[in-house]
Amino acid sequence: MKQPKARAGFSSARQVAELAGVSRSAVSRTFTPGASVSEETRERVLDAADRLGYHVNHLARGLMRTTTGIVCVIATDSDTPYQGRMLRALIQHLRDAGKVCMVFNTAGPAVDVGEALRNTLNYRADATIVLSGTPSPTLIRTCMDSGQRMVLINRDDRLGGAHNIGVDNETAAEAALHAFLRAGCRHPALVTSAAGTPSLLARERAFIAAAGREGLEVLVWREGRTGYETGAEGARRLFAARQRPDAAFCVTDLIACGFLDAARHEFGLAVPRDLCVIGFDDIEQAGWASYRLTTFAPPVEEIATRAVEMAVTEPGADPADRDAVCHAPMVWRATVRPG
């Protein structure tokens, strides 16, 4: 009997069944982990599938089941070192868990994040991890009501049913202020962006509050994107003023790198003799010889592991800890004078 030839495009399970001489359900059982099928039937189906170039259509399967195996990740500024590192860790852990990861890289505003969340509903994702951005609570609730598990990273709100993972920004910001005090600094500055994300705002509020308890006023620069240029411009503005800071807490390492370069090369300041600087994130560049930046190191692997555990938990079997707060230890390098 003349055997069918593989066709251009996707082959169907029906074609595999015809070529293997088995039922359509036998093909389905062959590609379903744990399903019962004889070894002879399995070999015939796999041989036919190989000859036809057949691959299981997981999206179609998801339409017939209550789960799809898809976990969406919503991220902003994924090209930055810290976000890129976190995204890689999440993708790897989801892959290890046997999940299909769909990444939505947004521009940041709530409207873009909201559009990404609506797309997760279109793809019937089992869960969504919101790595960054500020989607509306109403939209998050809509996703959960549709059966999604929601994992929110670094959000300051608590929505019933959603999982939350945060970093202890307050303790880190207070530690930064006290490191400056031990170094003899009395004119601190805070350099941040206009992004207004919960994590950045938490560091800002905690640092200013800690300084206030010591009777110190903080000079604040809050403009631009959360990147290198914002730090450089912050240094230009702060050091052009009559009252110059002698210490700066930069809410991310990228901002700190820009701040350090402008302070040194445009104003001739020596770090840490004339100026002490602390960042946050412990990106690769923070350890480079040209920066040797004192910073805080959020536990990326721990956050990613917990986020994926929360995302892949089967319905009705939620993990005991719905919320998690991770400590970010200080990494001492060379941009703060020793006390």
What can you see in these coordinates?
There is one protein chain. With 339 residues, the protein is α/β, with parallel strands linked by helices. It has 12 helices and 12 strands. Strands 2-1-3-4-5-11 form a 6-stranded parallel β-sheet, sandwiched between helices. Helix 1 (13-20) crosses helix 2, helix 1 crosses helix 3 (39-52) and helix 8 packs across helix 9 (198-213). Residues 1-8 have low confidence and may be disordered.
Distance between the termini: 87 Å
Shape: elongated
Helix and strand succession?
HHHHEHEHEHEEHEHEHEHEEHEE
Helix content: 40-55%
Category by helix and strand content: alpha/beta
Please give the order of strands in the largest beta sheet.
Answer: 2-1-3-4-5-11
| Total beta strands | 12
Mean pLDDT: 87
Largest sheet: 6 strands, parallel
Strand content: 15-25%
Q: Tally the helices: what do you get?
A: 12
Question: What is the rounded Rg?
Answer: 26 Å
Show unreliable segments: 1-8
Which key phrases capture this entry?
339 residues; alpha/beta; six-stranded parallel β-sheet; four-stranded parallel β-sheet; 12 strands; disordered N terminus
